[in-house]
């Protein structure tokens, strides 16, 4: 199956944001090419270093939060079954 690189980038950024700590620090165990593209777009610090984490830029953190809310926010998914519905 072929995947849309833009959708993958958005999902990765959302996941980086969802699992960030200290207001934007997050682990960088994600596909290198995707991480490089996010860095080129100004959303994250340079992933090419010896650190096991990267920093989300202010723009990346804001964009990632928007995407994470849209993709993963409770009650935002059509057909999502919550515990109260069962």
Automatic annotation (TrEMBL):
Superkingdom of source: Bacteria
Pfam families to which the protein is assigned, alphabetical: DUF6429 (PF20008)
InterPro entries per UniProt: DUF6429 (IPR045489)
Domain DUF6429: 5-73
Annotated protein name in UniProt: DUF6429 domain-containing protein
Source organism (scientific name): Pseudomonas frederiksbergensis
